[in-house]
Specification:
Chain lengths: 413, 375
């Protein structure tokens, strides 16, 4: 070999080949990336955006808000009359477009009790001429209700009109802004309690699935193939039945005159039926049943891979079976156990259907409240804020897990 | 017990039978006495029952019928963790979540030895297998040969009187395997434990053992020192399983109890040692090892001569293998040292092959099926 270096042509050729194989690899991945973007990244991004982007009010009364920009809400003075005139004109046109109710709802959120004020005033101003309002709108407002002379109301309108706001996050964390602008604790704790309860319920479920799943997975991994396969069908059976069917069957079991109560009464173990339905107990027990396979399957796959000679080696070295099990076998199941626990915990903390059906108020979790704000109270922004906080919480747990156990230890099968 | 010292019967298998499904016997009537300090190998193809015997001795499988004794006492009711038997597993079975030192200390800790003594013994054990610097590593960071040495050290550290090894070198490559054979032999001589070794590799068995028990189909075919096993196999299975052998079909013409006369298919008459020769008039097998068969006219002439057609030769390096075909179609192989005398033959040449009478063995035809080929 006289010249071990590559010639420029050879280098160019090698680069071309590398680029082509890279491009080919990218093409294979593109459909998945598009799918993930459309179904996952985009919705979650929208949700995050929505949790602090709130343009409704600014779209309803853009001119008023523009005028209010010059008004200092910290002072003790009302906004100048021209500003109030503009508001009156806009309120009239909103009434004609049947949008004044929406405005009332939005302002009401910032200042409770202002809904009826806005609605009735809107009715009043709609009878007046637009030209008349342009000059005497302010007087008309003051005449209709003395509340229009309160500074808090205008503060609320200005606050509701800001396009970007962190208020929903404050609400989701049971905090609020005091009139002076400081962040203070709310009188009643709703959401933090619920987050805490969700964590607790998820923890109970994880613990229960581990306690039930571990011996079963061990038996499955060590049983003869024929028996193991048959039992595996029973483990997988829940996957093949509708979630609703399973949850409803728990209602049949747990209700006051349900199977469990009538059996216990027939056996004279209890005299009065137990109240199990619509409790935290019902949520925990039904979700444990539903999530059990997520614990068993990773545990099983890890245990299946543990060579029985480890345990035999421990015995031959003089260890008694129980110490050998604890010191040798148990540590080897950690990857499967942590994978199962992480799965069960994360799935259960955001679970919705089962707590909604069997949990009642006591067994409610944070997701039920998110659904409430989506469907009933129509406060999507708060729902988005609650959802984002839940996402943050799960990410935090995942990070914590990675720090303590290490994601590389995870074995899903 | 009158004729035997207790040390000659340190480990005894007495009519041991084992069945997993109460029908088929995996081990059929196995009896073996092992001397204290002896190195005994159980050799056989996979599924021949050798590992099962080892597991029964270790206490991981129960004995269906028969007795196993250690030092004169039955171990029937002794739990595996009380038998004080060291064991080396095929895939090492080093605990992956413990360092090498922790692995080695484990048997000492369960025996509740004081910490200082544990530390000293672990240090000694690491020195014994020349892995002094590796105590803090995890098994996953070691090479196959190093893991095997640790496994060996761990099975020896609590000073068991018996060490069982279940195909311990099966997962290593050839060079490493030879090195480890030497290592195991060295430790055996140095420490004087009784070793029972299971393998399906005949070379390994021949080089390491004091005695070899050849298993097939749940039965011990022969138990003898390596040289006896190789030179005077008890039957055609052993003759075939240990080393290579040429098989020539024939018929017994006469037998004086020492030398049998055999007629071959074309009428040639040859003589061979009676090993387990069938009665006169019955078909038999004549076995000659390739290194004992010579091409006539290359300086060697013996009593027995047959003719065969040369087919091809295979260049191995230190030797050359010549392949011949007899008129009845049977193939023969001759191993010739690769020196100046190695003849060059044209394919198709009719050649005469010759061997000494005491190097040919007259054997029974294996009953029913074909002889099992060596793994």
């Amino acid at each position: 070999m006289s010249n071990p270096e590559l010639t420029p042509d050879e280098i160019k050729q090698a680069d071309r080949n590398r680029r082509r194989s890279k491009l080919l690899a990218t093409l294979f991945v593109v459909p998945l990336l598009v799918f993930i973007f459309v179904t996952f990244v985009a919705p979650i991004g929208t949700m995050l955006y929505r949790s602090f982007y709130h343009p409704t009010v600014s779209e309803l009364i853009p001119n008023t808000l523009e005028a209010l920009d010059d008004w200092s809400e910290d002072g003790s003075e009302l906004p100048p009359n021209p500003t109030l005139n503009i508001f009156a004109v806009e309120l009239k046109s909103l009434f004609e477009e049947r949008l004044s109710g929406k405005l009332a709802e939005e302002i009401n959120r910032a200042l409770p009790g202002s809904s009826s004020l806005i609605k009735s005033t809107a009715r009043l101003v709609s009878r007046a001429d637009t030209a008349e309002l342009e000059t005497g709108g302010a007087a008309l407002l003051f005449d209709s209700n003395s509340k229009w002379q309160q500074i808090e109301l205008w503060q609320a309108i200005k606050k509701a009109g800001s396009v970007f706001t962190a208020d929903y996050y404050l609400t989701a964390l049971d905090l609020e802004r005091s009139p002076s602008g400081e962040i203070v604790q709310r009188g009643t704790q709703i959401y933090l309690d619920l987050y805490w309860k969700s964590l607790k319920i998820a923890f109970y479920i994880t613990l229960l699935t581990a306690l039930i799943g571990f011996p079963l997975a061990w038996y499955l991994a060590n049983a003869p193939t024929r028996i193991a396969n048959t039992l595996m069908i029973f483990v997988l059976l829940p996957f093949w039945t509708s979630l609703l069917v399973r949850t409803t069957s728990w209602i049949a079991l747990l209700q006051t005159n349900g199977v469990v109560n009538s059996t216990l009464q027939t056996l004279h173990i209890i005299s009065e039926p137990l109240e199990m339905m619509y409790t935290q107990f019902a949520t925990v027990i039904a979700m444990t049943h539903i999530l059990l396979p997520f614990m068993i399957l990773p545990l099983y796959s890890v245990m299946k891979g543990i060579d029985p000679s480890y345990f035999r080696a421990a015995l031959s070295l003089g260890a008694k079976p129980i110490p050998a099990f604890i010191r040798i076998y148990l540590p080897m199941t950690v990857p499967g156990f942590s994978a199962g626990a992480l799965l069960v915990f994360i799935i259960s903390i955001g679970y919705y259907i089962t707590p909604a059906l069997v949990g009642g108020t006591e067994g409610q979790m944070i997701s039920n409240l998110i659904a409430f704000h989506m469907q009933s109270s129509n406060n999507w922004e708060l729902a988005a804020a609650l959802g984002s906080l839940l996402l943050l919480l799960i990410t935090l747990l995942y990070w914590l897990y990675d720090r303590l156990v290490g994601i590389s230890n995870l074995k899903l099968g | 017990m009158s004729t035997h010292d207790i040390n000659d019967q340190y480990v005894r298998f007495i009519n041991v039978k084992k069945s997993y499904d109460q029908r088929a016997l995996v081990v059929k009537d196995f009896s073996l006495d092992i001397r204290k300090g002896e190195f005994v190998t159980l050799l056989g193809p996979s599924g021949s029952g050798k590992t099962t015997c080892l597991m029964m001795l270790a206490g991981f499988e129960d004995v269906t019928s028969g007795t196993i004794q250690i030092n004169g006492k039955s171990v029937q009711d002794v739990a595996p963790y009380h038998r004080n038997i060291g064991m080396v597993f095929q895939h090492y079975a080093l605990f992956p979540h413990m360092t090498i030192s922790e692995n080695l200390a484990y048997p000492l800790k369960v025996r509740k030895l004081p910490a200082s003594e544990v530390k000293q013994k672990v240090k000694d054990a690491l020195a014994l297998v020349e892995l002094d610097a590796f105590g803090g590593r995890y098994p996953g960071q070691l090479s196959g040969g190093q893991k095997q040495r640790v496994a060996l050290a761990r099975s020896l550290i609590f000073e068991p009187s018996i060490v069982l090894m279940d195909e311990p070198l099966g997962a290593l490559d050839k060079n490493l395997r030879e090195h480890m054979q030497y290592e195991i032999k060295r430790l055996h001589e140095q420490l004087g434990f009784t070793a029972i070794y299971v393998t399906h590799d005949q070379t390994e068995a021949l080089t390491m053992s004091d005695r070899i028990a050849v298993f097939n189909d749940g039965v011990v075919q022969q138990c003898a020192p390596p040289s006896a096993l190789y030179e005077t196999p008890a039957n055609s299975f052993v003759a075939d399983f240990i080393g290579e052998n040429n098989h020539i079909n024939g018929k017994v013409e006469s037998n004086d109890g020492k030398i049998a006369e055999i007629s071959l298919s074309r009428g040639d008459r040859v003589r061979a040692l009676d090993i387990n020769c069938p009665p006169v008039g019955e078909p038999c097998i004549l076995a000659v090892r390739p290194e004992n068969l010579f091409i006539a006219g290359t300086g060697r002439e013996y009593d027995n001569v047959i003719s065969a057609e040369f087919i091809t030769r295979l260049y191995v390096g230190d030797s050359i293998r010549y392949f011949f075909k007899m008129s009845d179609g049977a193939e023969l192989m001759v191993k010739v040292l690769n020196d100046q005398d190695a003849p060059v033959l044209e394919p198709g040449t009719q050649t005469r092959l010759t061997w000494a009478t005491e190097r040919g063995l007259a054997l029974d035809k294996p009953a029913g099926k074909n002889p099992v080929k060596a793994a």
